[in-house]
Amino acid sequence: MHFYLPKLILTLLLSLQFASAHFFLRYPAYIGYNDLTQGTGPCGGFTATDRSAGVTELTVNGFPIGVTSTHLGVYYEFRAALVSAPTTWVSLTQMSHLTAGGFPYYCQPQIPGIAAWVGQDAILQVIQHASDGTLYQCAAIKFVSGGPWTGYTTSQCRNSTGTTAEWGYWTTFTFR
C-alpha cells in the first residue's frame, strides 16, 4: 500500500496545479506563463517588451488568437501596444463574452491588426476577466502586410463544442 502513496500524492499535486490554472494563450506563443503571477498586469508578471522567446508575425488583415480557459464564463479583451510605447494599449476588438458547456478551447480566427504598425515590434495583450479576477498574458508580435493569416494549426486555433462568443450587444457566434 505504501507504494501507491507517492503516486497518489503526485496525482493530487498535479490536479491542484491544473485546478488553479486560469487560461493559456495557445496562439500566438506567449512571452511567459506563471499561474501564480497571471493576475499581474500587463503581462502576467512578465516583461511586456521581452522578445527572447521569439516574435510571431501577424497580418493586419486578420490573425487568430487561441486560448484554453479553465473558466466556463469569462470576458476577453484583445489589445496591442508598440514596444516603443509599452504602456499605451490599443483595443483590437470590442470585449467578448465567452460561455462554454465544458473545458473551453476558444479561438477567434480573424482579429484585425493595426495597419499603421506594419513592420514595427509590438505586444499582443490578452486579458481574461473571470470570476476570480483579471488575468493577463502577452505575446511578442510584429504586424505584417497581407492576410488573412493561416500560419497556425487546428490545435492552436479551435473551439470546443457549444462554445459561444458574444461581441458587443448585437453579434453572437456559436461554434459547433
What is the typical, i.e. mean, pLDDT?
78
- Indicate the proportion of strand residues: 35-45%
Which CATH-level-2 architecture? Sandwich
User: Could you give a short account of the major beta sheet?
Assistant: 8 strands, mixed
First-residue to last-residue Cα separation: 45 Å
H/E element string? HEEEEEEEEEEE
Residue share in helix:
under 10%
Low-confidence segments: 1-20, 169-176
In CATH, what is the class?
Answer: Mainly Beta
| Radius of gyration based on Cα positions | 17 Å
CATH fold group: Immunoglobulin-like
Total domains: 1
Number of helices: 1
Apparent shape:
globular
Number of strands: 11
Sheet/helix structural class: mainly beta
Assign the CATH superfamily: Immunoglobulins
Pfam family, one: BIM1-like_dom
Signal peptide: 1-21
Membrane topology: Lipid-anchor; GPI-anchor
Subcellular location: Cell membrane
Report on the structure:
It contains one helix and eleven strands, in the order H-E-E-E-E-E-E-E-E-E-E-E. The chain is mostly beta strands and 176 residues long. The chain has a single domain, classed as Immunoglobulin-like, CATH 2.60.40.10. The strands form two sheets. Strands 2, 4, 5, 6, 8, 9, 10 and 11 form an eight-stranded mixed sheet that branches. Strands 1-3-7 form a three-stranded antiparallel sheet, with no helix packed on it. The longest helix is centred in the first third of the chain and has 17 residues, at 4-20. Residues 1-20 and 169-176 have low confidence and may be disordered. It is a lipid-anchor; GPI-anchor.
